[in-house]
């Protein structure tokens, strides 16, 4: 959508998406603004809830425990840090905008990628072959396009599994997102419209297997205990999904006439709402590099894109990794540093506001 607005010819290749997907995405303010600029309005969508307060609670049983801390959007002049929306509703909003812009959408499966000196040839199941000057790979962590470009990856597996599902709750969440820090990882409740919330619960693989065996009532009871009944009685309101926790980083974010975005370039654990928000910043940086480019696949264009994304991705990867390791570690010094950092954020207003603004890194390019 952004590239079409710049005058580029664009063809989308990929499945139509699942409009019934009940999983959710927390879109931070920069992402909300980027989507609005592209004609996709999230704020006020009936399937989305605002995130006005973000609270962190140290629920570990270790010697050094941080005090609870709450970040309020109004402190930095915002109505909300962002909006949490069901993936199905987000998919439908994006598809509607594609249709409005009359962007060609080929829903067949990509079969092969042939990279030549001046173009890339694409073979698609059930459709005519395509030729492009630039292919933007958004085909996930097992990207066929990335592999065809010969771009490798580095990977780190954590001894954790993430459980994601939606809940109905008996108490108002008051548009507060609450992240409990536990010895196995974060337990995060994020508002949805009405008395509903989405949950991402990071546990050990052994605990995940035990949770899989529970019926809905028993699982709801475990969630109530882990949340200290913050939202009262809960009931399961969606299917459960379990994800092994890992990071996957492409060794380069571009190849010959190939640009990687999203999980084709970087996979991070579901901590701090970084995944899709990083993807939108990829798109913004790529759009800036392509602005006025006569040859969109030229190496100078792609080099500018890679350079623009390096610091942001590296910083986010390091921050998420350090936070996660600090929860898993029994090292006294690391626990102390985490507690001291949260204490400083609670007590030092200017520092807290800088961190809040940095966490909302904008995806809009002026």
From TrEMBL:
Cofactor: FAD
Alphabetical keyword list: FAD, Flavoprotein, Monooxygenase, Oxidoreductase
Coiled coil region boundaries: none
A Pfam family this chain is assigned to: FAD_binding_3
Pathway terms, separated by semicolons: Cofactor biosynthesis; ubiquinone biosynthesis
Domain FAD-binding: 126-311
InterPro entries: FAD-bd, FAD/NAD-bd_sf, UbiH/COQ6, UbiH/COQ6_monooxygenase
NCBIfam families recorded: Ubi-OHases
Family: Belongs to the UbiH/COQ6 family.
Name under which the protein is recorded: 2-octaprenyl-6-methoxyphenyl hydroxylase
Species for this entry: Labrys miyagiensis
């Amino acid at each position: 959508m952004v590239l079409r607005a710049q005058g580029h010819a664009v063809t989308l290749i990929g499945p139509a998406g699942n409009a019934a997907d009940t999983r959710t995405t927390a879109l931070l303010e920069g992402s909300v603004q980027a989507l609005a600029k592209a004609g996709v309005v999230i704020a006020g969508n009936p399937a989305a809830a605002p995130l006005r307060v973000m609270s962190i609670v140290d629920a570990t049983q270790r010697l050094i425990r941080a005090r609870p801390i709450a970040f309020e959007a109004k402190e930095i002049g915002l109505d909300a840090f962002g909006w949490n929306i069901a993936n199905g509703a987000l998919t439908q909003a994006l598809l509607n905008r594609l249709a409005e812009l009359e962007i060609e959408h080929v829903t067949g499966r990509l079969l092969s990628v042939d990279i030549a000196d001046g173009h890339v040839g694409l073979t698609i199941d059930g459709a005519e072959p395509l030729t492009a000057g630039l292919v933007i790979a958004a085909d996930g962590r097992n990207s066929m396009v990335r592999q065809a470009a010969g771009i490798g990856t580095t990977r780190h597996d954590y001894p954790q599994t993430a459980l994601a599902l939606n809940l109905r709750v008996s108490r108002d969440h008051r548009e507060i997102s609450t992240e409990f820090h536990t010895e196995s990882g974060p337990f995060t409740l994020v508002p949805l419209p009405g008395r509903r919330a989405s949950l991402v619960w990071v546990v050990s693989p052994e605990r995940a297997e035990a949770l899989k065996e529970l019926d809905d009532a028993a699982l709801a009871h475990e969630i109530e205990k882990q949340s200290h009944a913050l939202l009262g009685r809960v009931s399961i309101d969606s299917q459960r999904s379990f994800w092994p926790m890992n990071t996957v980083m492409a060794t380069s974010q571009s190849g010959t006439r190939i640009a990687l975005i999203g999980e084709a370039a970087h996979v991070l654990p579901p901590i701090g709402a970084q995944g899709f928000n990083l993807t939108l910043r990829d798109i913004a940086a790529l759009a800036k590099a392509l602005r006025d480019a006569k040859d969109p696949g030229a190496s100078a264009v792609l080099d500018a894109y890679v350079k623009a994304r390096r610091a942001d991705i590296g910083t986010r990867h390091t921050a998420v990794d350090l936070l996660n390791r600090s929860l898993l570690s029994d090292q006294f010094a690391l626990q102390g540093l985490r507690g001291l950092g949260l204490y400083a954020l609670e007590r030092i207003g200017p520092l807290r506001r800088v961190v809040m603004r940095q966490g909302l890194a904008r995806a809009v390019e002026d």
